[in-house]
Amino acid sequence: MAANREDFEAMPQAGCPMSVEEVDLFAPGAQEHWYDAYKLLQEDAPVLRLPGQGYEPGADAYVLTRYEDIRRVVRDPDLFPTRQGPGSSGTSEIHDRIFEDEGFGEVVTARERLRPDIESHKAHREQLTEPWVGASGALRHRDMITEHANRLMDAWIDRGEVEFVTEFAAPLPQAVISTILGFPLEDMPMTKQWEEAQVRRFVYGFGPKSQMEAPDEADNARALVAFNRYIQERIDEKRREPKEDMITFLTQVEFQGKPLSDGDIISVVSGMHIGGNETTQYALTSEAMLLAQHPEVADELRADRSKVRFFVEEALRLYAPTQGLSGRMVARDTEIHGVKVPAGSLLHLRWAAANRDPELCPAPDELRLDRKNPGKHLTFSIRPRGCPGAGLSRLEQNIAVNVMLDRLEDIRLAPRGNDFKHQPGIMLGLYELHLEFAKAREAVAVG
Ligand code: HEM
Questions:
Q1: Any domain includes 39
Q2: CATH number of the domain that 249 lies in?
Q3: Sorting pLDDT into bands at 50, 70 and 90, what band is 421?
Q4: Number of structural domains, the chain?
Q5: Cβ distance 259 to 268 under 8 Å?
Q6: Ligand 1 atom 42: residue of nearest CA
């Protein structure tokens, strides 16, 4: 089993599918042809059955690619709930067992304990995460984000070229979420490795369940136990010496009439850490790529900064960082788009396909800054369970694009180094993006 890029690329790579029968969204190499595959699926198999790929023995998985079908599923949490039980919080039974053995069992059960239903899910979001990463809560981080963006750019702006992923798109969200949580920035090399362990199954796992083989699963769970210990140390520190950060807040807040336990806090912090890093990295990378590919758009945005938010929404719609998630189950026998789907099936929702469904908007493959409802895409999913960190991510992207437009001119793709290869899994992430640019003449740090 491959658990890194080299091993993965040594495997036979999928070609571009010519028919529905040839579509396997989870095969190595399939990520380079996802958008061709989505068109085939939407036309001929909008509810694609993957026999035996559900969670229970004999249960199937179904891949949904049409906008209205996915929207209907997300809006109906009674008929299409999230999965409960061991391995249900985006992990696996091996992972959960190791956590229990190492004294972190409470972290695994936190979701079922703290928010077993939609009402408590809503309260959890409103009271615990929105004040820090929700649309208005995130605004308090504006200056901090701007400072980090400028500081990162200072390191390479005089060079006239940059490998944008490692020198900006990855460290910016990491510095931002570390600051919000209250992780020391000097720990970033270490927390980066744990963040990679958090997403490993979504990159190197196979099939709609993103499964890794048992030894990889166990190794990874042990790495995450070390991360839990690290978070535990930060909690202990903040209880002794409170600071102005999210972990301190979580040690002081009451939820459902009582303080959060350390296991509860670790579960919230882990969620912020996995959500707050790579997804935004991929979005920032796509935005830089689009600016380089469309200099006329960069000029238009420079001339009218009110269009930046439309640009960000279009980039999110066109290149959804989280392409799909197996996030819902079927509670009772039902029908989706005329296909009978039995109770107990797993639903894999392809947000990225829905975003380019002609039902959503005309010319869905085009970047247009004048769309009527630019934020109507499903990149962050939608309520009642949509992404709680969308506000923070949108703010980071808007700030980063503005800083790029302020300080860089003539942004272009470097003639060498760009192979535009993406990592496998369920996320759309360019490994590298080499850019060249001129330093803007009146460049002033905005921080
Ligand atoms: C471009 C950036 C991002 C994308 C594309 C993204 C996408 C998503 C999606 C599609 C979901 C699933 C929602 C559902 O099942 O209906 C989700 C959940 C989640 N996201 Fe994000 N997200 C991003 C940024 C963030 C940030 C910045 C944070 C935190 C700071 C975050 C934290 C979370 C958490 C904790 C969940 C799980 C919520 C739950 O348990 O119900 N995300 N995100």
A1: no
A2: 1.10.630.10
A3: very high
A4: 1
A5: no
A6: 275
67 CB within 6 A, ligand 1: no
Number of the ligand 1 atom closest to the C-alpha atom of 133 = 30
pLDDT over 90 (residue 430): yes
Per the structure, the complete domain to which residue 123 belongs is given by: 83-316+366-439
Confirm or reject: Cβ of 388 under 6 Å from ligand 1.
yes
Residue 443: pLDDT above 80? no
Is the CB of 391 inside a 6 Å radius of any atom of ligand 1? no
Mutate-to-test residue for ligand 1 from 125, 319, 387, 397, highest number of ligand atoms within 8 A of CB: 387
- Is this structure's pTM higher than 0.70? yes
Q: How far apart are CA 435 and CA 153, in angstroms?
A: 13
Is the shortest distance between the CB of 182 and ligand 1 below 6 Å? no
pLDDT per residue as tens digits for the range 390-417:
999 999 999 999 999 999 999 999 999 9
Q: Is 327 in the pocket of ligand 1 (CB under 6 A)?
A: yes
Protein residue whose Cα sits closest to atom 6 of ligand 1: 380
322 Cα nearest atom in ligand 1: 5
In a domain, 117, yes or no: yes
**Residues 329 and 82: beta-carbon distance below 8 Å:** yes
CB of 133 within 6 A of ligand 1: the answer is: yes
Closest to 130 (Cα-Cα) out of 294, 226, 249, 11: 249
In a domain? residue 193: yes
Q: Which two tokens stand for residue 192?
A: 């980066």
Asked if residue 78 is part of any domain, the answer here is no
Distance 393 CA to ligand 1 centre (A): 9
pLDDT in tens, 32-78: 999 999 999 999 999 999 999 999 899 999 999 999 999 999 999 99
Distance CA 157, CA 436 (A): 10
Cβ–Cβ < 8 Å for 308, 332: no
Q: Measured between alpha carbons, how far is 282 from 284 in angstroms, rounded to an integer?
A: 5
